[in-house]
Amino acid sequence: MKQTPHHSKAGERDAGKLGIPEPTSERVVPLDEIKLAIGDSFQIQTQIEQAEARYYVKLVGYLKGRSVLVTIPEAEGRLCYVREGQAFVVRFFAGRNAYAFTANVLKSSSIPFPHMHLSYPSQVRGLVVRAGERVPVRIICAVVMQEDMRTVTAAGLLTNLSVSGALLSAKTRLGSSGDLLSLKFRFDIREIEFVTSIDAAIRSVSQDEYGEFLHGLQFAGLANDVAIALTAFVYQKLAESPH
């Protein structure tokens, strides 16, 4: 079921106490100064009536000042129709930075493989991704705790997430600072669903003006595959966010 977000100044203040960084700093860089590799994934978003349609394409190469060559996007195993002049917002990440630029389709062809030339960007906006970067989310999770020598399960909502921790909202208080709990939740990376279970420690507890309990969590002992998946998810969310 889709969750309707509600914002509160109290929640924002509590988030600040949990060490959530200020908005990422933005800078403008030339495309050729970014360390890109053939085969890197770009996310493209249409700029017409289907403004929410996003697709993934692969970088084939580029020639400075001329064009950026990428594969043609696919949906449900079929090539999407693109027309000359069609506008896209292109997003990607490289290293620890997320980038975005706008481009138009210059030419598309199916020979020798489906590809299209995008206009070479005059500038690329970059967001510096700091360590512990958190992104806003709305992810329902199951919370498992130990209470009076028995295992108790509750429902919660993750409202921000990073590789190192999260902010968990729940209708009841799930523990105190220092208590341990386990989270189970799902998230998508490039249309691939991941289900994970993560152990965490409560670092702070507060309440917002709606009566929801906000738990600042610190993750403990992440497996390498989980850490990599969470990092990719955070970068993806940063790349998708308007900036």
Detailed description of the structure:
The protein folds into 2 domains: 9-22 and 132-240, Thrombin, subunit H, CATH 2.40.10.220; 26-128, Roll (Pnp Oxidase, Chain A). It has 2 helices and 16 strands. The chain has helices at 9-17, 224-240, and strands at residues 26-29, 41-46, 54-63, 67-71, 74-75, 78-79, 87-94, 97-109, 115-119, 124-128, 135-147, 150-161, 165-170, 180-189, 192-207, 213-219. The strands form 3 sheets. Strands 2-3-4-9-8-7 form a 6-stranded antiparallel barrel. It has a 6-stranded antiparallel barrel with strand order 11-12-13-16-15-14. A hairpin with a 5-residue loop joins strand 15 (192-207) and strand 16. It starts with 8 loop residues before the first helix and ends with a helix. The model is unreliable at 1-24 (pLDDT under 50).
List the helices and strands and how they pair.
Layout: H1 9-17, E1 26-29, E2 41-46, E3 54-63, E4 67-71, E5 74-75, E6 78-79, E7 87-94, E8 97-109, E9 115-119, E10 124-128, E11 135-147, E12 150-161, E13 165-170, E14 180-189, E15 192-207, E16 213-219, H2 224-240
Antiparallel strand pairs: 1-10, 2-3, 2-7, 3-4, 4-9, 5-6, 7-8, 8-9, 8-10, 11-12, 11-14, 12-13, 13-16, 14-15, 15-16
Structure described in brief:
The chain has 243 residues and is mainly β. The chain is built from 2 helices and 16 strands.
Identify the CATH class of the largest domain.
Mainly Beta
Please give the alpha-carbon distance between the first and last residues.
Answer: 28 Å
Q: What is the overall number of helices?
A: 2
Strand order of the largest sheet: 2-3-4-9-8-7
CATH superfamily of the largest domain: predicted glycosyltransferase like domains
Protein name: Type IV pilus assembly PilZ
Organism: Candidatus Accumulibacter aalborgensis
GO molecular function: cyclic-di-GMP binding
Keywords: Bacterial flagellum, c-di-GMP, Nucleotide-binding
